[in-house]
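User: Sequence in, structure out. Go.
Assistant: Echoing your sequence, followed by the structure tokens.
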Amino acid sequence: MYPNAPSQPGGGGPGDDLKGGFAATAAAMVSLILSPPINEFTQPYVIYWAIRSYPSELVELISIAWMILIWPLTFFAARAGIVYALTAAGIYLAYRFF
């Protein structure tokens, strides 16, 4: 609200914003590439376990829900991995050069 107000505690700084934005963008690209193959490989197992417990109409709904759920799962997994890699690289560089 105020231009010179101190930031909130734990808010991070411009580096965290940059790292988070890059991680989100890269994770979106990775998840768009990896979601279809992961769905193709895992959906038969999900259908197999759903057939054992639910009627066929519900199995179709579970199949569609799994297809939709794969994208956020891959997105957040990729984002966490990229944030971890960027943090580890930053720590390595800090120890190496400072």
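User: And one key feature?
Assistant: DSSP finds two helices and no strands in the chain.
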